[in-house]
Write a structure and sequence with these properties.
The protein has 4 helices and 15 strands. By secondary structure, it is mainly beta. The longest helix is centred in the middle third of the chain and has 11 residues, at 151-161.
């Protein structure tokens, strides 16, 4: 028995139920620069890279080999602008492109204007999976927050984007620190050994092995919610902070491995190379935003090698 194995399944996440949607909602940080502070992409897979370490670690300035996640980022279409006042929707503006609105089932009736006395402005966008090879038909629609000094500046910035396509390089820069929000890979119903990492019982203890030894004390005379029990495992919304963008590029030849990514295929659009892992399986929509807990200056990432070896 490994006495040093840490327990799995943090009890900080409650309740452990399935996420309601694959397009997760997110908290938007404040930003005074006039810019879009979020984006979304599809997870293609992982690859091996080499880069120059620019952190303050002992390997600073040296070439380091590590893992990175490839996110295919087809352009987002900005189909509307939404105004908020006291956290309530007050007005909306839609683009004049009826073909794009028809994809969402929106019938444009009359043109409205967003009032200037609103508190906040959001962009209404939808992803375009039809431009990828993942086979998804229905586009995901969601909001993107804007940065700016006040709502008036945000509104003027949003009107310049209305009816246009938004690319990843228009939002983020190489080397920028971001937060990643996604729905994790679902594993269905699992027992307490896999779900919480408890030890198996010895064969002669109770005749059962993969169960918790006790359901709790005598008083209070009920089972507490903290007792490890079986239930839903995976398919939860998770946020990972301070992930670094190593590269944003339009050249698909340098990222596509021989034979394509397993269970995904080939990348056809712009891609984002993120250092480390990202929650969720392949083809899952991943939301990105500017970092909430990082104020470090942007350092241009120097990627020296990207593996094109087959992943099968």
């Amino acid at each position: 028995m490994d006495l040093n194995k840490p327990r799995r399944g943090s009890r900080a996440y409650r309740p452990r139920k399935r996420a309601e949607t694959q397009v997760p909602e997110m908290f938007w940080p404040a930003c005074t620069d006039a810019r879009v502070i979020g984006f979304a992409a599809y997870k293609a897979g992982m690859t091996t890279i080499a880069y120059i370490d620019q952190s303050e670690s002992p390997t600073k300035g040296q070439e380091v080999v590590g893992a990175a996640t490839v996110l295919e980022a087809p352009p987002l279409f900005v189909y509307g602008i939404r105004g908020y006042k006291r956290k309530s929707i007050t007005s909306e503006i839609y683009a004049d492109n009826e073909a794009k609105l028809k994809l969402l089932g929106i019938k444009k009736t009359k043109k409205s204007e967003v009032k200037e006395d609103v508190d906040d402005i959001r962009l209404l966008v939808f992803a375009q999976p039809s431009k990828t090879l993942i086979g998804k038909k229905h586009p995901e629609r969601f909001e993107l927050a804007l940065g700016g000094k006040d709502a008036k500046e945000k509104l003027e910035f949003a009107k310049n984007l209305l009816g246009k396509e938004l690319k990843a390089k228009d939002v983020f820069k190489s080397g920028e620190i971001i937060d990643v929000i996604a729905i994790t890979k679902g594993k269905g119903w699992q027992g307490p050994v896999k779900r919480f990492g408890i030890n198996k019982q010895r064969p002669k203890s109770t005749g059962k092995r993969r169960h918790v030894g006790t359901l709790g004390q005598w008083h209070p005379a009920y089972v507490l919610y903290t007792v490890p029990q079986g239930g839903q495992h995976g398919y939860h919304k998770r946020t990972e902070l301070n992930k670094q963008i190593l590269k944003i590029s339009e050249s698909q030849d340098e990222i596509n491995p021989n034979g394509g990514f397993p269970h995904y295929g080939f990348v056809k659009n712009d891609f984002i190379l993120v250092k480390g892992s990202v929650p969720g399986p392949t083809k899952r929509l991943v939301k990105l935003r500017i970092a909430v807990r990082n104020n470090a200056p942007i350092k241009e990432a120097k990627v020296t090698f990207v593996s094109n070896e087959p992943k099968q």
